[in-house]
Amino acid sequence: QVHLQESGPGLVKPSQTLSLTCTVSGGSITTDYYYWNWIRQPPGKGLEWIGYIYYSGTTIYSPSFKSRTSISRDTSKNQISLQLSSVTPEDTAMYYCARQRGELGYDSFGQGTQVTVSS
Hints:
By secondary structure, the chain is mostly beta strands. Helices cover about 0% and strands about 55% of the residues. The protein contains no helices and eleven strands.
């Protein structure tokens, strides 16, 4: 069974770049047809999809984040990474990585990591 674990700094200063890593075990990030997503939930709000990296390495971003987001992978470590630049307090949220099997939807989420943007 696949397991996803997010990690990164819990506190980031405004205007800095937020960097998170999702370590995947029990399955390869290059397995055919899986999408590896980053999703967040700000306090008191719903889930926001940030983007994904496909098993082939293709990346797609939400228009809301595209200008300041980069999702990458390290296949040797079986990790997915998120970088979100120019953060503001509005980027304070719980950040999740999630695996998606195409139209079948998400089948695995990490436990999430809390990120607070504050000076």
